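Morning F.,

Quick status update on the modeling queue. The single chain you submitted on Monday has been processed. Sequence for confirmation:
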Amino acid sequence: MAGGEKIRCGTAPSGVRYALRRSSGSVAWCALSIGAGTRDEAEYPAGIAHFIEHNIFRGTSRKSARVISSYLDRLGGELNAFTTKEEIVLHATVLKEDLPKAVGLLFELATEPTFPEAEIETERGVVLDEIISYKDNPAEDVYDRFESMLFDGHPLGTPILGTSASVKKIKPDMMRRFVKEKFIPTRMALSIVADIDLDRLEKMVLRMTGKTFSSALLRNPVRANAPEKVFPVAFNKTIDKHNHEVNAVIGGIAPSLYESPDRFVAAMLTNILGGPASNSLLNAELREKRGWVYGIECSYTQYADSGVVAITFGCDRPNLDSCLKAIDKILAGLRDKPLTDARLKAYRKQLLGQLAISSEAGEAQCLSLGKSMLAWGEVMSSAETRRIIDSITPEQLQDMARRLFAPENLSSLIYL
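Structure tokens below.
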């Protein structure tokens, strides 16, 4: 169990890690997280991880694409997947009595894909269209380009979708080699959230992992130690896209997955600055008070060897200078003066409330469990998370603001 919660974590003899959480209700969620993403493409065309994720549903040694597409549908379930810089995640939602079928399908997709050439060509057209449509969305494209520039020369700088040119170079044999090299048990984490007894659930997992992987492998975490931290050179770039709306990103390097408690401090600071609530500092000033933007947020993305903090917004051209000055003033306020204890108490309660509400969503729970198992081989209890957040001081937040938002450390990319 994790901190007295209804969670059980372990590692199967094959090396597959698992995290199981007892929930309530008739719906079950399962996810197979694989520690292989965009950053693992050094010897391959850019975008191959995402292309594999698309094509993994196009056939296995036992099922055709048509059978796979309807396998869970006819049970009322859902099957999906996504790719990040560091993971490929296959996940499903089903009735709890159909959970073994869903878990079995996830393992089959990850270990027995055939990548038939005719199916691949069909999906290649879909991905190429996705790349084109993404470029037509400046709000998304500007952030991707910002990260690529921030991590220029580093594996994290590779765009998840790749480019049209790189995707056209991907061949079935490359995909099979990538899967053979990367989709191994020690890079996998199975997470399940269901109203099923944990002993019974664990026996099912051990049985199915044993059936899928016949021989035991060395059980090493995917990322046992934090890799060397990235220190890019700051930049400020403006590109004339001839758009009606200006899209901008301002940000820089932040703590990685392995920097604790710094990552919790950074998470709280970015939530205060530009979280989803209407009272976040940026939203309250630029949207609610001034009406200069439709939306503005501050995001914090954690990777194994680095992190990214980014303020993103869109506005009319005449409002750009006013927005930039207002953002500078808010960041200076966080750097120059610590929050009062009363304000911090309110922000702390807000963050804990947001975490509690999001933790009630079964799919979000399941995906979070998988990410935790891949990164650390364990799941932090909500009690421990609360303890760390409760211990954050105004001085820690001020120090983090000085580190993250020092003018010399900030980069910007603006699409005009």
